Amino acid sequence: MKTPETPVPASRPVPTVITEEEAALGAPDGRHTLFHVEDTRYDFVRVLERRHDGEVLMLAERHEKHGLPGPVAIRRLHTPSTFERRQRLKEEVQLSYRLNHPAIAQVHHFKIHERKPYVIMEYVDGPTLDGVMSLMALRHRPVSIAFALYVGAEVADALHHAHQLSDEAGRPLGLVHRDVSPRNISVSRNGAVKLTHFGTAWSRMVGREETQGALRKGDIAYASPEYLRVLRLTPVADLYSLGLVLLELATGRHLFQDAMEEAAESLRDLPVKVSVEELPSLPLTRLLALMASCTPNEVVRAVAGLPRDFQAVLQRALRRAPAERYPTAGQMRDALRACLAQVSQDSSYGRQEAAAELAQLISEASAARDEAELGDERLFPSGLESHELDAPRAGGKRRA
């Protein structure tokens, strides 16, 4: 007797994943509503940036029940796959709510929509330093020393605020940003500097989930030696990262750029084995070797073309030993501001001057905008040609 076959259930159709851009194109008016938060509606405008870890930064328009609409930035995060990652995501949001500083992009709300996490935050109408450095390359000249010092002092002030953060009981959280890199620092078109993305921050917050194993988060090309070697972290790790950023902003070259171009393939195999959460801008094993072999004399050569006092600030920030750097971000901020006062001489350099210089940088680089893919939608407004981006020249001397 033949055994009757068990009927095979019909397979369920796999739902089609539609991106925000596709949904907007299909909308009658070209606008797609992402979600609502109580009586406030958030409409998708365009994608600003995509990252290797799957994170997407979008520009959206906020429509409140009473009041005028306004722009916000919305980060669609990579959906956490484990309990530990979900806990770290909650920690990021909790930490972000505590940060209240004019040079830190404010986080407004955290939203789970259709099982995807979104962070609603302040929109910075201007490029990241990644974008600024791309513009520098297009016009073949760095920004002014004053611009670099101004940006550095603002970021150091923001870090000082973050490093001093305490919990409700007044206990220091010992926060370390861990990803002070060009992509996480923005300059708005009105000259305001904003430090963003505290998603990789370390802290002593109660209930915090530890990063497992030797996983390195963020762009390790700007990481401190102790972070790369999985050693104990203190806030001065962020000062080393800031030193690397400022050196590249002021000179157009990373500290290890020349060495990276000449490094031998044999440097790939090192005894220290760590992993990274996303693809770095420099290979990890090479970076570890270069970091270990970097001497103070190499830093001296890298900063040689800068004003003497600025050289001294960067040389101290880029000391391999944490104890030899500035003890606090506040002290590094004060040193940078003292340098800025000397460079700008009788006239002060602030938001207005930075805004004018940024506008001029965009204008000058726009002539070569077709030569490279910049990847930052905030650099050139859609549809504008180079002659429409003319801007007044920034005051002060420029570096050759």
Automatic annotation (TrEMBL):
InterPro entries, per the entry: Kinase-like_dom_sf (IPR011009), Prot_kinase_dom (IPR000719)
Chain segments annotated as transmembrane: none
Entry-linked SUPFAM superfamilies: Protein kinase-like (PK-like)
Record-annotated Protein kinase domain positions: 42-337
Alphabetical UniProt keywords: ATP-binding, Kinase, Nucleotide-binding, Serine/threonine-protein kinase, Transferase
Residue ranges with Basic and acidic residues bias: 372-391
GO molecular function, one term: protein serine/threonine kinase activity
Region annotation (Disordered) ranges: 372-400
Xref: PANTHER family: MITOGEN-ACTIVATED PROTEIN KINASE KINASE KINASE 20-RELATED (PTHR43289), SERINE_THREONINE-PROTEIN KINASE NEKL-3 (PTHR43289:SF6)
Protein name in UniProt: Serine/threonine protein kinase
Native source organism of the sequence: Pyxidicoccus parkwayensis
Upper classification of the organism: Bacteria, Pseudomonadati, Myxococcota, Myxococcia, Myxococcales
